């Protein structure tokens, strides 16, 4: 057993500017690093593929923050009323709640949405009039918002608000904690009112189904109902946006792959899986807490410690992937971009469908698509947890 190397401030500008280079150096230096979160809480960062994969299925790691021995200086911007969701819970509560929503997200159920998603994509692409566009604004941002709001049953006229609220959380390292907290409070109030309205007049959507599970079958508490709506809306939007953006960028940076996808030699799905490895929308998994003293990669970690598993680092581990920095859609998919185990992404089939339809139609409509700025000029949202573009200027 060894002790972890200590890195005073890992979550700094250097990591933000070059996540993969920084993680490569860390991974090389040791499997687990002790550092502090941006808000000052001690944290252990896990860097290697095998350890990250194993941590996802280790029952000694809890997602419930009641098991933390330390906290940061700032409170989370998410109000405690929205806390009782899947990514803060362990079995048996997690199992009960996940069962309630999982049938809405099976591959078969989601496949039924394809014609609908196609129609949205066609409409968004029709609206691109000039010979230049920001793909984030024109396609990657609006599509997942339309789809997740329809699935949940958020009226069309309210969707603009959601976009602003989730944006403020998405770029939360840049925004003030006060701004994020205000957005979250507004979102909380809105969801509370919407649930009340749907109680009086149920509609055919996931939120009405959840309200029914609460009122008629007593399967979840009011707090769990609210938090579930919040989680699905938030995660269903942010990461799907980033998958579409990151996949489009990967194609623009690799013209040979773009040609191969256009020729039908590389399936769009394979290109998306490689994007989830090479530049994953979620770079750090949800924080976990050690329920007992344990070791990861031979490093001793005391009970109560906060653990961050780096998906970005695991996905570029040369012990798992040959030549990991190369974008190679033909490699067998083994990425951890959607996590693993009981918290494996609920929305993975939906995210894959949205991105597949978006990218397929985009390449068909604009076969000559290219970046309108130099590769090193693309700008990223400032986040240690997510990897997403601010804008994606293209021309054709
Ligand atoms: C490309 C897009 C997406 C990526 C990369 C992604 C990534 C992830 C990851 C890594 C986790 C596991 C977190 C952990 O265990 O630490 C997760 C969980 C989850 N994701 Fe996604 N996600 C995406 C899209 C979506 C969509 C569209 C939805 C919509 C429903 C969604 C809903 C969820 C939920 C509810 C969980 C928690 C599951 C649980 O705890 O049982 N995600 N996602």
UniProtKB/TrEMBL annotation:
- Recite the UniProt keywords alphabetically: Heme, Iron, Metal-binding, Monooxygenase, Oxidoreductase
Q: Which SUPFAM superfamilies match?
A: Cytochrome P450
Cited InterPro entries: Cyt_P450, Cyt_P450_B, Cyt_P450_CS, Cyt_P450_sf
Q: Which residues form the signal peptide?
A: none
Q: Family per UniProt?
A: Belongs to the cytochrome P450 family.
This chain belongs to the protein called: Cytochrome P450
């Amino acid at each position: 057993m060894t002790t972890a190397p200590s890195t005073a401030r890992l979550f700094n500008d250097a990591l933000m500017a070059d996540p993969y280079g920084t993680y490569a150096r860390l991974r090389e230096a040791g499997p687990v690093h002790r550092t502090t979160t941006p808000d000052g809480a001690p944290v252990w960062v896990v860097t290697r593929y095998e350890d990250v994969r194993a941590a996802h299925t280790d029952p000694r790691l809890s997602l419930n923050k009641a098991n933390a021995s330390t906290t940061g200086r700032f409170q989370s911007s998410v109000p405690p009323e929205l806390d009782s969701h899947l990514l803060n819970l362990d079995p048996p509560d997690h199992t009960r709640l996940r069962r309630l929503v999982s049938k809405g997200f099976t591959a078969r159920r989601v496949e039924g949405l394809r014609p609908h998603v196609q129609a949205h994509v066609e409409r968004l692409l029709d609206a691109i009039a000039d010979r230049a566009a920001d793909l984030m604004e024109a396609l990657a941002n609006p599509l997942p918002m339309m789809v997740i709001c329809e699935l949940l049953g958020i009226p069309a006229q309210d969707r603009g608000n959601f976009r602003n609220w989730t944006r403020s959380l998405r770029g939360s390292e840049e925004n003030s904690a006060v701004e994020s907290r205000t957005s979250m409070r507004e979102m909380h109030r809105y969801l509370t009112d919407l649930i009340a309205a749907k109680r009086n007049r149920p509609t055919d959507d996931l939120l009405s189904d959840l309200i029914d599970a609460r009122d008629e079958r007593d399967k979840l508490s009011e707090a769990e109902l609210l938090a579930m709506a919040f989680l699905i809306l938030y995660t269903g939007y942010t990461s799907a946006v980033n998958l579409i953006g990151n996949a489009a960028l990967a194609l623009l940076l690799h013209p040979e792959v773009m040609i191969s996808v256009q020729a039908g030699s590389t399936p769009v799905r394979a290109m998306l899986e490689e994007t989830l490895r090479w530049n994953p929308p979620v770079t750090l998994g949800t924080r976990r807490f050690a329920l007992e003293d344990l070791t990861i990669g031979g490093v001793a970690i005391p009970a109560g410690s906060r653990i961050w598993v780096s998906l970005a680092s695991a996905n570029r581990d040369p012990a798992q992937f040959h030549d990991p920095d190369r974008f190679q859609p033909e490699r067998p998919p083994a990425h951890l971009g959607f996590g693993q185990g009981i918290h494996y992404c609920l929305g993975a089939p939906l995210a894959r469908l949205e991105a597949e339809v978006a990218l397929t139609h985009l390449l068909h409509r604009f076969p000559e698509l290219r970046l309108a700025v130099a590769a090193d000029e693309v700008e990223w949202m400032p986040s240690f947890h997510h990897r997403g573009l601010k804008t994606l200027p293209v021309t054709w």
